[in-house]
Structures are given as structure tokens and as C-alpha cells.
């Protein structure tokens, strides 16, 4: 700017009317409008919501940044320019918002108000920040501001990747696009309050950029900036600086970030044994549970290394979160368990760690031969990352991966090998299809070609070149193998229930539905069944979904409206379009019938559910309930014990102890009754004292007379008590 003749530089601030009539403004308006129209054809982006707001924030930064860059070329800058340029940028965002708003008449939009807030907090704030950044860079670098702008923009866009690599969090806040929720299957909304607070910090940086630019202009050209008082620069600069420093150093406490020091401080306790370190909350994990957790980690690590033929070196660090909400706050996901192979660490939840431990350890061990800094393939064969973990873990519900995949093939649901292993296909399929199909395909490859070849494919992030066959050839051979698998029939409903669920990219309002459903679930867990019922009904009205139907049925059962439970479950199960997605409602139907002393109705409903045996805990509970209904159809104590998992009780712990004692008395009268034995063991073996009592009974029981599920339960209890030889015999 200093190289230009003074006579060539406009000496007045930009006027809004002038900015609106510039060609670049018109071109950008048309471009924004076309992009918005294109977004209406993409399921994930076709409505006002987080995803569309995030995409437009990036568009505003990359494309919209041209607008202030062009309009500030070869001219003197003024503080008022910021307001004219920012207001114009906001006006340019209104037509795209209008397009998506109009589109709501044709596609379901569950939360227009929430979506509008996301647009205000993401692309609108991005416009203001980008404008301030351009004015700052134009002041410092003149004509070269454009190069500097895109260089700075690249640094901003690298920030979330660096942050997620170096810190435990899956999410990232950023002044360009607001917030990135991270790569997980946790379909929740960004926290509005935290996002709004972060955008307040963005405002502080905007003020810093503008006041610094004004100070530089005043120093360079005191005559032209004489009207700008020093106090008008210094006062807002200092206030913004104080705010920015506060937000920077309080980022962990405010939820903008989550560092390892904070994570260790929050969890509080660290314990190391051999090659394993556990970071946990000692207020909820006692010494006996700690020993069991460490032994299980060591056992699974050894098994995985043996399966993958890898010699373990280094240290496995496991972060055990006390509950899902703590994990969501510190990690950024409530339902997903994750591994970080590049740091040899896993993040699991206390209530569910056993189900996911082996899977996550596979990721860490595979990181020893994995590609890139992450230690996992993701550019070409993301499906191999999860496929290998599933193949080694092998269990998924009550059928093997090959049985599930053979059933998917039978009903036309199995994706092509390219689409279950290739990155794009794996990411866009529903999670259940992607995980199970990739696991089956990888297991078949391991058995056919050997583990060493799969390790090589993993490290090369490639399948076709490594194994010397095209996806079409591999798909044909895999399907030929699956055709030899003996399926557990009937399985049509069970397969549809597990694998016809829509993916995040095509589901209706997935984030809103998940968030509202979890709120309703918390109400139900707190005993507020009537409020939960209303909430679930609202969710079902927003977008018909299985989660809401299960919630409504559970709330009705909690309210003892048994006739309504039976009526509601029958109504949904008669709907041919939805019956497969809510098939486990038969469990609640059976429970309601049993509560009305209709043992025949209960047995019929449970029998119908077990005929298909869909994946999930309802099937396991239905097996126990059916045996109890057959053996003790009118035993109120046994009924209450089994239905305790479906009905919230205020004094659950004391009731458990009372019921355990009562069952023990019944069991002493009928020592050969396996139903009474199993339920007594489940009630009793919940702590170290109870497990000692249970072990006494197990040691005095003839294992030859126990069925498979009871043998497994006894084996788990023995394993928890450290009686490994006994556990091995039982297993």
C-alpha cells in the first residue's frame, strides 16, 4: 500500500450501498445460491442444521474470503470497512438459509430453531472473523495479503488435526469453522452453550485483529488517521487481550479442549502392572475390580498379539472413564470406545469396557505395523482398520460374522467387497453393515491368505496390489465361501433388524433424534416415567424411529399401563414397514403379559422373539424369562427379579439384597432348579463378598448338569475371583 501513489488510493471508507453493487458481490451471491441448491440434493446437508452450517462456514472462509480481499485492494482502510464488509457477508448468507428453509417444506427438518442457531454461530461468525483477518493482513502486507490469508487459513484448518493427534479429545473448536465434532458414530449435537462461549472468544480475537490493524495504520500514516483517538484503540484492545488470554488458558475448563494433564487430574488414579497402565477413577473402582481389569487387559493383549503374530513392545495405556457423560465431556463421545494406535492408548467406559476391550487392543497392536503417523490405514482401505479388529474379536451378538454376512448376502444387504473395505463405502454404509461385513471379509482373507499377507495390506493401506487380485475377484471368492456357511435360520427379521438401519448420511435428523432420545432416557432412568413418555412421543412425532418406540414402551411398562404396552407393541409389530426395526418389542409385550399373570401370553411373545433371535440384550433376557415362565409361571419373586432390568426402582440395591436372600431360601428347597440358581448367582455375584458366596455354590455344583449359558456365567464369576483354572474348565 505504501508503494501506491496517494492519488490512486480511495480516501473514504467503504459504503454498504457501494459494496452491494460490486461485481464480486453479485458473483458470490449467485455462487452461494447455487451451492445451497446443490446441498438440497445431499441428505446430510439439505436442511438447516450443524452439517450444513459447518460446510457453509468452510465455504465462507475459502470462497467468501475473496470478497473482502477484492474490495480492500488499492484503497485506504478504515475501521468502518469492517462493518460494511461483514454486513454484506451476512446478507449473502441469507439466500442460502432461505433455500434450506424452503426445502424444509419437502424434507423433514426436526429443529429449525437449532439449525438457525448453528448458522448464526458458524458461518455468520466465520464471516466476521474472516473479514477482520483480511483487514489485518491487508494492513500489514498490502497486495500480498491474499497469499498470507490462504496460508493462515491452511494453518487454521490444520489445527483440529494436530489437536486431535496430540490431545485426547475427538472434537476441535476453531475460529474459522466453529466446531468439528470428530470422527465417531456418536450422533449428538454440539453443545450450544460451549459453542456460544467459544464464539465469544472469536469476538475477542476479532477485536484484537481490528484494533491492532488500526494501531498499525495510525503509526504508518498519523495524518490520515488523526480522527482515530488513541483511547479508542487501546481500551478495546486491552479488554479483548484480557478476554483472549483468559479463554486461552481456561480452554480445558471451558470445554474448548481436553489435555492429558486435565484428563489424568479428572480421573485421578494411575496404576501400572507389567506393560499396562490404567488411568481410572479410584472412587468407583475398588482394589478387587482393579485387579480384574488389569488381568483382563493383560490377557486380551496376549491373545491379540498371538492372533496377529506380533511381539508386543512398549506400554499400553488404558483410560477408564467412570461413566458415559464424563467420557463425553472429556473425550467428546458418549457411546463410542476408541483407540489411539499412535499413542498406544485406548479409551473405554467402566460399564461397557469388557465388550470393547479386545477390539480396541487390536487397533493398538495393529498400529505396530500400520501406516502413517496414525498407525492405521484410512486413505484407501479404512474398512481394513475396523475389519481387522472385528476379525480378531470375532463375536458380534449371537451369530458369527460369517453367519451375519451370509444372511446379508441372502437378503441382498451385503455390500461389494470394495464398498465394505474401501474408505468411501465403509464410511457411508450404516455402521453395523460396515463393521460386520468388513470383519467377515478380513477374517476370510486371513484364513485364505494368512495373517502375514493381511499385515502387509494393512501397512500398505491397500488390498488389491498386496494380494494380487481385484476387488471383483475377491468379492466373487468371498461370496462363494459365504454360500457354504450354515446360517441359523430363521433369520430374515433378525437380519433386517441389525442391518437395515440407515447410515448417518441418510438418516432423518439423526443428531436431534439422538440428543432428544438421550434426554428422555435420562428422565426414565431417574424414575420420571410420565415425562419420559411425553419426550419419547415428541421424538417419534419428529421422525418415526425405533429408539422412540422402545422408549415409549418402556415408559408405559414403568407406569404399570400393561394393557397399553400390549396394545402399542401389537400396533407397531403389525406395521409391515416398521415391524423388523422394533421386533424386540416382544420382550416388553411378554413382560406386560407376565405382570398381568398371563403366563401363556408371556410365553407366546417370548417364543416369537426367540424364534428369530435378533442381536442384542433383549434376546438374552428373553431366554431367561421364557425358562422362568415355563418353570415358575406364577412366582412373583422370580418375575420381579427378571423384570428389574426393565422397570426402574428407587431402592434397587436394597431390593437386590432382599430378593437374593429370598431366592436363596427357594433354592435351598429346590437345589436342582437351574432357573433359581442362575438368577440367584446374577443377583449375588455383584461384588467381592457376593462372588465368594457364589463360588462356594459353584464349587459344590456338578458342572455336567448345567446348560451353556449357566456354565458361561459360572466361568465369568470364577474368572472375576481369580480362579482361572476353574474358569477355564467351565468355559
Account of the protein in words:
- The protein has 731 residues and is mainly alpha-helical.
- The protein has 4 domains: 6-254, no CATH class; 259-367, Collagenase ColT, N-terminal domain (Glutaredoxin, 3-Layer(aba) Sandwich); 369-506; 649-731.
- The chain is built from 36 helices and 9 strands.
- Strands 3-4-5-7-6 form a 5-stranded mixed sheet.
- A hairpin with a 4-residue loop joins β6 (338-340) and β7 (345-349).
- Residues 1-8 have low confidence and may be disordered.
Please specify the SSE layout and strand pairing.
Layout: H1 16-20, H2 23-39, H3 50-62, H4 66-71, H5 80-103, H6 112-141, H7 145-166, E1 172-174, E2 178-180, H8 192-220, H9 230-249, H10 251-254, H11 260-267, E3 268-273, E4 276-281, H12 287-308, E5 316-321, H13 324-331, E6 338-340, E7 345-349, H14 353-366, H15 382-393, E8 395-396, E9 399-400, H16 401-410, H17 417-421, H18 423-428, H19 431-449, H20 451-460, H21 464-467, H22 471-482, H23 492-499, H24 510-525, H25 529-542, H26 546-558, H27 562-574, H28 585-595, H29 599-612, H30 617-631, H31 636-643, H32 652-669, H33 674-684, H34 688-699, H35 708-720, H36 724-730
Parallel strand pairs: 4-5, 5-7
Antiparallel strand pairs: 1-2, 3-4, 6-7, 8-9
Helix pairs in contact: 2-5, 3-6, 5-6, 6-7, 6-8, 8-9, 12-14, 14-15, 15-19, 16-19, 19-20, 24-25, 24-26, 25-26, 26-27, 26-28, 27-28, 28-29, 29-30, 32-33, 34-35, 35-36
Amino acid at each position: 500500500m505504501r508503494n501506491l501513489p496517494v492519488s490512486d488510493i480511495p480516501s473514504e471508507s467503504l459504503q454498504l450501498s457501494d459494496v452491494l453493487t460490486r461485481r464480486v458481490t453479485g458473483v458470490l451471491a449467485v455462487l452461494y445460491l447455487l451451492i445451497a441448491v446443490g446441498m438440497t440434493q445431499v441428505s446430510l446437508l439439505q436442511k438447516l442444521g450443524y452439517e450444513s452450517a459447518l460446510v457453509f462456514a468452510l465455504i465462507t472462509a475459502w470462497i467468501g474470503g475473496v470478497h473482502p480481499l477484492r474490495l480492500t485492494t488499492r484503497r485506504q482502510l478504515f475501521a468502518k470497512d469492517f462493518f460494511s464488509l461483514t454486513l454484506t457477508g451476512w446478507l449473502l448468507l441469507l439466500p442460502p438459509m432461505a433455500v434450506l428453509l424452503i426445502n424444509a417444506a419437502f424434507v423433514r427438518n426436526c429443529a429449525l430453531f437449532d439449525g438457525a442457531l448453528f448458522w448464526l454461530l458458524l458461518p455468520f461468525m466465520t464471516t466476521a472473523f474472516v473479514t477482520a483477518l483480511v483487514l489485518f493482513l491487508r494492513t500489514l502486507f498490502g497486495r500480498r495479503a491474499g497469499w498470507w490469508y490462504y496460508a493462515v487459513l491452511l494453518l487454521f484448518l490444520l489445527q483440529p488435526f494436530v489437536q486431535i493427534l496430540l490431545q485426547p479429545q475427538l472434537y476441535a473448536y476453531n475460529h474459522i469453522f466453529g466446531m468439528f465434532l470428530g470422527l465417531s458414530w456418536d450422533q449428538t449435537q454440539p453443545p450450544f452453550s460451549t459453542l456460544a462461549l467459544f464464539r465469544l472468544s472469536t469476538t475477542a480475537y476479532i477485536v484484537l485483529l481490528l484494533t491492532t490493524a488500526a494501531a498499525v495504520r495510525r503509526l504508518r500514516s498519523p495524518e490520515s488517521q488523526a480522527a482515530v483517538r488513541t483511547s479508542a484503540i487501546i481500551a478495546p484492545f486491552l479488554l479483548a487481550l484480557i478476554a483472549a488470554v483468559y479463554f486461552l488458558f481456561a480452554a480445558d475448563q471451558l470445554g474448548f479442549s481436553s489435555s492429558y494433564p486435565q484428563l489424568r487430574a479428572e480421573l485421578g488414579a494411575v496404576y501400572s502392572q507389567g506393560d499396562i497402565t490404567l488411568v481410572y477413577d479410584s472412587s468407583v473402582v475398588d482394589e478387587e475390580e482393579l485387579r480384574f481389569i488389569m488381568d483382563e487387559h493383560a490377557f486380551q493383549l496376549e491373545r491379540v498379539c498371538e492372533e496377529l503374530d506380533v511381539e508386543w513392545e512398549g506400554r499400553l495405556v488404558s483410560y477408564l472413564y467412570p461413566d458415559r457423560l464424563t467420557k463425553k465431556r472429556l473425550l467428546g463421545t458418549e457411546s463410542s470406545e476408541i483407540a489411539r494406535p499412535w499413542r498406544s492408548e485406548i479409551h473405554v467406559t467402566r460399564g461397557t469396557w469388557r465388550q470393547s476391550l479386545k477390539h480396541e487392543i487390536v487397533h493398538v497392536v495393529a498400529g505396530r505395523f500400520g501406516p502413517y503417523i496414525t498407525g492405521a490405514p484410512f486413505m484407501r482401505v479404512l474398512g481394513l482398520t475396523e475389519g481387522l479388529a472385528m476379525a480378531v474379536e470375532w463375536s458380534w451378538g449371537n451369530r458369527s460374522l460369517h453367519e451375519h454376512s451370509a444372511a446379508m448376502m441372502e437378503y441382498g444387504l451385503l455390500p461389494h467387497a470394495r464398498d465394505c473395505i474401501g474408505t468411501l463405502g465403509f464410511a457411508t454404509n450404516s455402521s453395523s453393515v460396515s463393521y460386520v461385513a468388513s470383519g467377515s471379509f478380513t477374517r476370510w482373507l486371513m484364513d485364505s491368505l494368512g495373517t502375514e499377507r493381511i499385515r502387509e495390506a494393512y501397512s500398505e493401506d491397500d488390498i488389491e496390489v498386496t494380494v494380487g487380485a481385484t476387488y471383483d475377484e475377491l468379492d466373487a471368492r468371498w461370496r462363494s465361501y459365504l454360500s457354504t456357511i450354515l446360517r441359523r435360520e430363521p433369520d430374515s427379521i433378525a437380519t433386517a433388524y441389525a442391518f437395515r438401519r440407515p447410515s448417518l448420511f441418510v438418516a432423518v435428523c439423526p443428531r436431534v433424534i439422538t440428543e432428544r432420545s438421550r434426554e428422555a432416557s435420562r428422565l426414565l432412568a431417574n424414575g420420571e416415567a410420565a415425562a419420559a413418555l411425553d419426550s419419547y412421543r415428541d421424538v417419534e412425532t419428529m421422525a418415526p424411529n425405533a429408539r422412540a418406540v422402545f422408549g415409549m414402551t418402556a415408559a408405559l411398562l414403568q407406569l404399570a399401563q400393561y394393557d397399553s404396552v400390549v396394545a402399542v407393541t401389537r400396533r407397531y409389530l403389525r406395521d409391515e414397514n416398521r415391524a423388523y426395526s422394533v421386533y424386540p418389542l416382544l420382550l416388553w409385550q411378554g413382560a406386560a403379559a407376565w405382570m398381568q399373570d398371563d403366563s401363556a401370553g408371556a410365553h407366546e411373545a417370548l417364543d416369537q422373539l426367540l424364534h428369530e433371535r435378533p442381536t442384542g440384550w433383549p434376546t438374552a433376557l428373553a431366554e431367561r424369562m421364557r425358562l422362568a415362565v415355563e418353570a415358575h409361571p406364577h412366582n412373583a419373586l422370580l418375575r420381579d427379579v427378571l423384570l428389574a432390568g426393565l422397570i426402574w426402582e428407587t431402592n434397587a440395591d436394597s431390593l437386590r439384597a432382599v430378593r437374593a436372600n429370598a431366592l436363596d431360601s427357594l433354592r435351598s428347597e429346590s437345589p436342582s432348579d437351574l432357573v433359581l440358581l442362575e438368577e440367584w448367582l446374577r443377583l449375588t455375584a455383584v461384588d467381592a463378598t457376593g462372588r465368594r458366596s457364589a463360588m462356594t455354590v459353584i464349587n459344590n455344583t456338578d458342572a455336567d448338569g448345567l446348560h451353556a449359558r449357566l456354565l458361561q456365567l459360572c466361568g465369568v464369576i470364577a474368572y472375576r475371583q481369580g480362579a482361572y483354572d476353574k474358569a477355564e474348565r467351565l468355559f
